[in-house]
Amino acid sequence: MAAVTPMMAQYLEIKAAHPDALLFYRMGDFYEMFFDDAVAAAEALDIALTKRGKHEDQDIPMCGVPVHAAEGYLLTLIRKGFRVAVGEQLESPAEAKKRGSKSVVKRDVVRLVTPGTLTEDALLEARRHNFLAAFAVLRDEAALAWADISTGAFHVMPLSLARLGPELARLAPAELLVSDGTVSQFEDTVSDMGVPVTPLSRASFDSSGGEARLCDLFGVSTLDAFGSFTRPEVSAMGALIDYLDITQKGKLPLLQPPLRDRAERNVQIDAATRRNLELTHALSGGRAGSLLSVIDRTLTPGGARLLETRLSSPSRDLEVIQSRLSALDLLIEDPLLREDLRAVLRKTPDIDRALSRLSLDRGGPRDLTAVRAALEHGARIAERAADSGLLAEALTALTGFSALSQQLDAALVAEPPLLVRDGGFIAEGFHAELDEARTLRDEGRGVIASMQQEYISETGINSLKIKHNNVLGYFIETTATHAQKMLSAPLSDKFIHRQTTANQVRFTTVQLSEMETKILNAGARALEIEKRLFEELRRAVLDQAPRLHQAARALAETDLAAGLADLAAGEGWTKPRVDDSRAFEITAGRHPVVEASLRRDGAPFVANDCTLTARDGAAIHLLTGPNMAGKSTYLRQNALIALLAQMGSYVPADSAHIGCVSQIFSRVGAADDLARGRSTFMVEMVETAAILNQADNAALVILDEIGRGTATYDGLSIAWATLEHLHAQNACRALFATHYHELTQLAGKLEGVENATVAVKEWEGEVIFLHEVRQGAADRSYGVQVAQLAGLPASVVERARTVLEALEQGDREGEARPKALIDDLPLFAAAPPPAPKRPDPSPLADMLKDIHPDDLTPKAALELVYRLKDAART
Predict the structure, then answer these.
(1) 631 carries a ligand binding annotation
(2) Strand partners, 620
(3) Which of 88, 371, 494, 742 has the fewest beta carbons closer than 10 A?
(4) Which CATH architecture is the domain 6-113 placed in?
(5) Segment Disordered: which positions (predicted)?
(6) Is 157 annotated as a binding residue?
């Protein structure tokens, strides 16, 4: 059996400490993987699998990736569900050899790369948060903590188990930490969200240990300065910090003090509603086609992340809503200011992520220049908006950085390299010793030539030369005749004899020896000086991190306000009136996503009103009309208008008065959940049950086709009972679309329930959708006409008409028609459709057959019109 080599022994030891991660083992310019890691990585990355040596008489599988391209490979592995332990060389091969010729270079894992702990730009979406969340359950209480280590955001909130699903849907964390003893309690909830789960030991969730970790992180003796936290909240935050300590190997990120959120501050939106309304992702899965994609006119990554947060968490605080709308008012009224701000914001880098990388020692010179540029642009924004009153409190955070800004401006070149090890990022003239080292490195020959001229002047020997060889290094050479002068006082005190040859004598000086050392070491010394200066600048930036985070927030707020103002001005949106009433009055409302899509096709959007003002009880509109007429669009657009208003945006309507909505529930469309054994109807009923059990009287509910997934009378009875429950128990504002026309009779019996219908027009057996919502009820659903539009064979459409007429006749006569139909009507036979009838000969067609319009003179065309009119009379 072959002995295990020292290097492989080291690899196995490191791998044993990280069994659940792929080990990137640094070997010079490559990260190499062995054994099962190599097999898995080669398949996931589609790279060659080779072998190196043997272990227990078996070939050792091996694959590798270049260090300079590692980020791309890391991203692929993370997206495919792997965790990666990055094992770096902790010393150079030369240092290892000092311990013995066969010594192995020291290596260890410096970082665990997981979905929730990414910081590099190449691994992240610039315009989205990347949250790491932790959920803690202590007896009957629970809490959720979440942080984005790439921006420093850190939040926590008390949370019931029932609210975990909706909050995960809101935050969409990249990774969720749970205690390994509690996973089974909410396994279904988490699997519904598709969030990767990482179990931690119970010790990580210990609240006492968590408090100590938090105090140590923020350098305080108590958490009271940040607020009053429950034990589950401290447990969740502590587990999150413990996990960061494990994955970052002691280099904790620069987190902001924790902010305590409360569910009642925001509009509650469950996972199904977010999906149905397509807030941040379309039903197809991508961002295109979502509400976010249509309204996002932000220009900075921070502004884009803030927009998604606001859209995911509309406010219920009227003061907050009015403050946000007032900022938009100023920017809409002053388009010049808006455009000036956006011009500056367009060039503003991402401070938060630069700070995060700098705090974790993953930053480079470009992160420093990003901070410099952001401060410069922030100062311009503050100056430009100083007299406008725009976001006055936030914009004060952009001032007071003149000293740091000047330091960075003086120290850094305009366009630095990516990595510190590349050097060349410190500006010329900033540091005298660095300038000298660079001069020696870049102009060594010139320096030596200058010294030679100096010695010629000093000795008066014009033939004196400074030369170099590998034995003596730099030396001064002259003829034997002139050497006597240099060997005599006073020159002998300076010039030191080194060597005498047949025709020449060689000297040196202390100055030349020192210069030789400087020249030989100039490159390394210049880089070391730059590294030291980088560290000083990094420290200067991090010392002001709390204020810089506030500046980043101010820039994001400004960007979001300017983006929403640009949207409102460009699209003709209006300022909503939001108050604490139960009003809901929309005039000429539009669906922003559908309108944008139609505009690209050159088609207009038909706007519609909606009045759902509730006084003492419910306000429910029962909406009927055919499929394809726009009922679902109408339902969704009113929910979106309410949501946009409460996030602090103008809305796509001529006017909007919205009494503050506490919850938005949407059940529009459904699909099988095969993985969990749920049919379409079961999914529909689960979502409806959640609405009926949770909606309060300030909720806005939109329901589409309740009961359609089962038998007619079952579905009708469920829809009937659902409508009555919304009216009597939930007493909320609701839009209820249905094909059960029997329900329209309830409008005359239940106060607050009104009928509305989507208008259509029939023309020669075809249905034309007008997309107009009017008062009243539809007399039928026009399903057969819609089937015809969809392209069903003509024979099927005609048979459907026959059966429909028979069923409707039976309803009018009170008969049980389905059985009678089977007995009375011959069964449908799948025969070829009849050949279309040839139209009767038309005199008008005969007249036009030989007419060539391009050949007609104006007079002849007029005469033709008269002849056609005469022919039409006959």
Answers:
(1) yes
(2) 734, 753
(3) 742
(4) 3-Layer(aba) Sandwich (3.40)
(5) 828-852
(6) no
